[in-house]
Amino acid sequence: MAGDSWLSDYDNCAQLGQQIMVKINERNKNQRTSSAYTKLSAHVRTSMKQFSGDVNKLRQSLLRASSSYHITQREVERRQIMIDSLTTKEKQLDQAFRNESGSSRSSLLGAETFSSNDPWGMSDEPEQFRGVGNADIQTQQQDVIREQDEGLEALSHVISKQKQMAVDIGNEVDDQNILIDDITDRTDRTGDRLMKETRHIKIVDKKSATCGYWVVIILLFIAMIVIVAVPYHGKA
Q1: Which residues have C-beta within 8 Å of that of residue 223, sequence separation ≥ 6?
Q2: Which three-class secondary structure state does DSSP give residue 168?
Q3: Is 137 part of a structural domain of the chain?
Q4: pLDDT at 100 over 60
Q5: Is residue 178 classed exposed, middle or buried when 0-12, 13-18 and 19+ CB atoms within 10 A define those classes?
Q6: CA-CA-CA-CA dihedral for 208, 211, 212, 216, to nearest 10
Q7: Cβ pair 44, 97 in contact under 8 A
Q8: End-to-end CA distance of the chain, in Å?
Q9: Cα Rg of the chain (Å, integer)
Q10: Contact 138, 10 (CB under 8 A)
Q11: What is the domain range of residue 57?
Q12: Residue 174: is it exposed, middle or buried by C-beta count within 10 angstroms (0-12/13-18/19+)?
């Protein structure tokens, strides 16, 4: 990734390790009692402390990057393998530095362990990482990040559509609630009117029954008058 200094720090650390190995080989060509041997030993000892510190910094930096998900899991695994290789070479450098016999030195520094084509023993790197340079890894990371960004953008569009659908459904529910409230109010008013009209009908019915009674009474009164009046006229 752009601005990722881990890979350049690793290259510097690996280069320092190669320089240390060259200094050890140069030192071992001198007599142990010579001043050149002593001077080179002091220089190598200081460089090895720096090498160990750089390896530890790389390890801590990788831990922070993996915790914050700034790099892919595949790249974390690749870089961890690179750090493990540096740790192994650190032990080999220490053994070479402490070695005192030329035969043991040649066995430690033989072509099988530090070949010119693979001075740091990276041939045991997983197949998917072999032949892939730092620039290629950065390109792969950028491709992965771009694909993740596209996926996140598509997901954002889907979420936006779902949010708009939820808003529309909420508005429709509000409209339906208003309509239901209006129907309820009209139903209540209609019920009140029905009850009022029912009371009016009862009153009218009661009045109608009273009027009928009065008609019957009047008719009976007239009949009584007629009955009384008819015999009176006959006697006359």
Answers
A1: none
A2: helix
A3: no
A4: no
A5: exposed
A6: 180
A7: yes
A8: 143
A9: 53
A10: no
A11: 6-132
A12: exposed
pLDDT tens, position by position, 177-207: 898 888 888 888 888 888 888 887 777 667 6
Q: Which residue has the tokens 């320092």?
A: 16
Identify whether 219 is part of a domain.
no
The overall pTM is greater than 0.85: no
Q: Which stretch, 9-23, 64-78, 159-173, has highest mean pLDDT?
A: 9-23
Amino acid at 12: N
CA distance 10 to 12: 5
Stretch 18-29: mean pLDDT: 94
Domain count, the chain: 1
Task: Kindly state the tokens that stand for 206.
Answer: 């009661």
pLDDT reported for residue 134: 59
Q: Give domain status of residue 11, yes or no.
A: yes
**DSSP per position, 12-30:** HHHHHHHHHHHHHHHHHTS
CB 105, CB 28: distance < 8 Å: yes
Q: Is residue 197 part of a domain?
A: no
DSSP helix/strand/coil, 4: coil
